[in-house]
Amino acid sequence: MHSALVPVKSLDEAKSRLATHLTQTQRAALMLDMLHHVLCILQASNALDRISVVSPDQRVLEQAQAWGAHARIEEVMGHNPALTAAATRELAEGSTALLTISADLPLLQVSDIHGMIEQSKQHTVVLAPSHEHTGTNALLTRPPLALPYTFGPGSLQCYLSESRIRQLSSSLYISVGLGLDIDTIDDLTTFQRYCDLPMA
Question: For the chain, give me the number of helices (H) and strands (E)?
């Protein structure tokens, strides 16, 4: 059984690094727009038995449910502990493979989801690096919690190191769709450039 977890911060804290460029209302709207896109892609992949959004924000959870996702309120404080608690529930509910994926990937495509799942047939751990190749925008493990969650600065190297320590086979899945997360005004500018490209 393949499941997905999509963590989302409180909308009051969403995209704080864009505070000098966007109002709090604009940042919240941007976050929800990107979440909607990610959920639509996950659903369109037809590769996941359950898609859950993990958040401390009731507004996010209500919206996620309206868009067809399962809502999981954060059980503990902190990004990684909250994910660990949610993943523990996924495991208890029968999940055999778990994709944990960022909610702020506006260029994500169905092929990205299929690509990661295909690689996971050969590797216990599949990692999708952020565009600067230090962070991690998606983590697929089979089974769930094969690695402890260490999302944050430098997480990619942490995951690779943990995989080696635990003697788990790992691979990287690199794509624009999984690489471009929106944190800064430069990220938004890059996204706009892609939107302005002529269709092939």
Answer: 7, 7
Tokens 């599949």, residue?
A: 126
Within 10 angstroms of residue 17's Cβ, the number of other Cβ atoms is 12
Please give the chain's pLDDT, 200 residues, in tens.
899 999 999 888 877 787 777 788 888 888 999 999 999 999 999 999 999 999 999 999 999 999 999 999 998 888 899 999 999 999 999 999 999 999 999 999 999 999 999 999 999 999 999 988 889 999 999 999 999 999 988 999 999 999 999 999 999 999 999 998 887 788 777 777 777 655 44
Interstrand relation of 97-101 and 2-7 (parallel, antiparallel or unpaired)? parallel
Q: What's the rounded Cα separation, in Å, for the pair 194 and 122?
A: 32
Number of folded domains in the chain? 1
C-alpha 192/C-alpha 71 separation (Å) is 30
- CATH assignment of the domain containing 163: 3.90.550.10
d(CA 118, CA 120) in angstroms, rounded, equals 5
Domain extent at residue 190: 2-196
- What does the radius of gyration of the chain's CA atoms come to, in whole angstroms? 16
